[in-house]
Every structure is written in C-alpha cells, then in structure tokens.
Amino acid sequence: MKQFHLGWAFLIEQIKWASWFYSIIIVLTIGTTIANHWGFLDNLDISNTTSTIFMLIIGLLYSYGFLDYYYKLGISRKMFFKAALFASALLSIILALAMITMIVLFETLVPALGFAVPWTDPLIGGGVLSFIQSIADYSVAHFFYLLLGWFMGLGFYRFRWKIGLLFILISFPFFGISALLQDKADIAHTIKFFTVNLQIISIGPYLIFFIVIAILIVCNYRLTRDVPIRL
Amino acid sequence: MSYAIEAKEVSVQYKDFTAIDQVSFQLKAGKIHGLLGRNGAGKTTLLSVLSAFRKADNGTLTIDGENPFENPRIMQDTIFIFDQQKDLEYTYDKVGEMLKEMAYFRPNFDEAYALQLVKKFKLPLNKKVNQLSKGKKSAFQAIIGLASRAPLTIFDEAYLGMDAPTREIFYKEILNDQEEHPRTIIFSTHLVSEADYLFDEVLMIHNGKVLLQGTNEQVISEGFSLTGSLEQVDAFTEGLEVLNSQVLGGTKSVMVYGGLSEQQRIAADQAGLEIGNLSLHDLFVHLTKGEEE
Fold it and tell me: Between the CA atoms of B44, B46, B51 and B55, what dihedral angle is there, to the nearest 10 degrees?
C-alpha cells in the first residue's frame, strides 16, 4: 500500500470514530441547551474540553489499536508513523472546522427556536477573524492533545504499565504548558493566541506550541521506530 | 516468488531470560519448513524476529538477502499468522469486508481463492469477525495466510481451535497451493504426528538453541528403533544414545538417536534384532524431554 493511500485510509477510519463522537456531542449540547432553558444548568460549555479529550483518547489508542493493526498487515513502523502524522494533522483541522460549524449552527438556530445558547461569549459576534482564530486555535490544541495521547500510549505499549505510568507523569508539564497558553478563564471558544487587539496576531504562544509539538513528534518517532510489536 | 532466510548467531533476551541463544540456520526458498519445539523453546520469539515484530538483540538475519527490520519490501511480503483471538474480539467488520481489505495491503492476495477457501472452511461471509467461534476465527486467519500468497508465510500454531477435519482441510490446502504457488512457509506446531507429512525440512529448537535441522528424511534417519531380546538389545546399544526403552517380559524395545552404519545394520540383523524407523513425533518427544521426565 502506498504511503498516501495509507494516510487516507487512516484518516477515514478516524473520521468514522469522530462522527460517533460528534453525534454524542450534538445530543449532549441539545440536552444542555434544553436543561439551560429550564434552569437546570447555567453557562455550560462542553465542546472545547471534550474535543481535546477525544483527541487525547484517539492518541492513546494509536499504538494499541492502529500501529498493531497496520503492522500486522505488513506496514512498517516508519510508514505507519508518517501516515499517522498526516492523518492526525488533517483530523485536527477537520474536527476544528466541524466544531466551529456546529457552534455557529447552534448559535444561529437555537435562538431562532426560542432557546438561549448555553454558553457565554458567542462566536458569531466576533467577526471573520474570530472564526479564523477559533479554527486555528482548535486545530493546534487538537493536534497537541493527540500527540500527547500518542506519547502516553506509546509509553504503555512499549514499556508496559509501570514505566507507562511514568509517561503520564512526564506528560504533566505538557498539559501545564498547554493550560498556560490557553486562557482557561475564557473557555468559551478562544485560546487567546491573539493579542487583545484582534487585528494583530500574537505569534509567541503559537511558536511555543509549535516547539512543544515538534518535541512530541520527535519523541513519538523515536519511541515508534523500533518498538516491538505485541503478539 | 519465495524468500530464503539466513540467521547467524541470533539472540533475543528478555531481561534475565535468554529466549533465543545464538541461533544460526538457513532456510531454503520455496520449501515448507516445520519449526518444532516445546512450549517456551523460543519458537514464537524466533518467528517474531523473522517477521520483524521485534529486533534481535544480537546476530544478523537476512531474508532474501536483506535485513527484514523496517524493510518495507520484505515486510509487505511477509505474513505472520498466529493466535490473534484477542485482537479479533474487537474486529467488528464482516468476514467478506475484511477479505476485500486484504487486497490493499497484500500485493499477491488472491480474493477469488480466498472466497473458495471461505466455502471450504464454511465461513459465513456476512458475519462479523468477532462473532465467529474460536475455530472459525482460526480458519479466517488461515484463509488470509494462504490467500495472501506472501513469499514468506509463517503459521504459528495457526490451527488452534480448529477441529480435526478442519485442520485436515487446512493442511491439504497448504500442500495444494504450495504446489501451484511455491513460497517459503514456516509451520510451527506441537501436533507433529499430524502435520509431519507437510514438511520438506525440519528445524527443531530446544531451550533457545537449534537441536536439529535438515530435510524431513535426514532428520528421521537420525533415529531408529531396535527390538529383540533384552540381553542382545543391551549389548548392541552399549555406547549408543538411547532415547527411550520399554521392556515387556524378556523383550526390549529401544529408540536410538544417531545414524546406523551398514556394518551395524548387518550386525543387528545377525543378532536377530528388528530395526525400525522412528517417526518425527518420536524424535521430537524424546529429544526434547527433560531429564526429570
């Protein structure tokens, strides 16, 4: 199988999983909107956290699920790694687009039906730059969490559970960096990569994120390139 | 197309345990090689090195003249069928869909042949793989192994869970398809007496080392049985390596390891001793048994 085809096959498989995830998220958000309308819940935003957690879980399954599966079909570790990276980057962007589309649809349709949007700081009030900003922020955050999940999963797959637990500990600083770069006070839709002036993009946080992402890619490759495949 | 294999001083270590200890051998291309060894002898570890599932800690291994580890050509052309019952528990695709998918990954995969085998093994094409019985799951894997027609095909106790008639179909298919599409097949098994007719060559390993290697006939000729009066058998076998002996009344029957010269054969005849052949199963059982057994 050619590298390109493998990457697409990998992406399609992940999108199948993601469609399940999105179905659940849509149902949950509708439920949240109704609960919010009747006063059961107030100002709850589940989408930002859940999509990154979803990516983290997908990353955790990379070694146990995908590497194992594709290797047994004759795909080399290096080929798998390249395909996984390609699919991960595309999935991060596709999920970000899907997330933003879902939010915009909700923010448009829900008030029209007489319900209140169950979160503050609506996205559609921010203009075009706000859309681009959110797509970029979601994409980077998704990719980062997927790589981190992949890293932790590799720890368990390669070294079994004792050292695997150590990989979770090693991951804590990465989560910390991510939390610092994201403005947790404002969890609505933005990760504040932009300066207060929305016309000027702040490159600094993106740069740090990209450096951390590069470190994770190198670590994951080094852990994958000679990992013994489990029988 | 089939691949030759050469291993030189290959070792694999798991912490303090040496699973494979400086093993050297050559496997000819286009033959069916029986890999025999008891539980824990190192068969699966050896096969996992051959299929590049893991790196050898020491030594060199070449398949078709190249190092197989992370070699896309060799890896694509090597199929390793082993007990994947646990993995298949999470395979929600249907049998037919899975077989179709194989063609994307295995360049020589023959879908028409796979469907013929599905009929022979009585597999339901529309059933999800995880819903198959243990024996049917093994048959499903055997179909993939056979229909992939990989130049290096490895079956590691691939028959687990199959009933005797299904195993018989499997063995026959190996022989039939090998005749039309020769490849290098390594067949690892415990059921030596049942599958010995498949092997062109035999590699027997014990405690991580090579115990015997040769053609099926060469290996079998390494042992013989002697039956006669107790005194005459004892006198004849003095200095020979006796693997096993049984006494019934005044008659003794022994299994001897080592070739028999023409002179010895004549002497045995003259002493009224009956010379018989040992089966591969007998040799395997008695050569690999521990001192306490």
Answer: 120
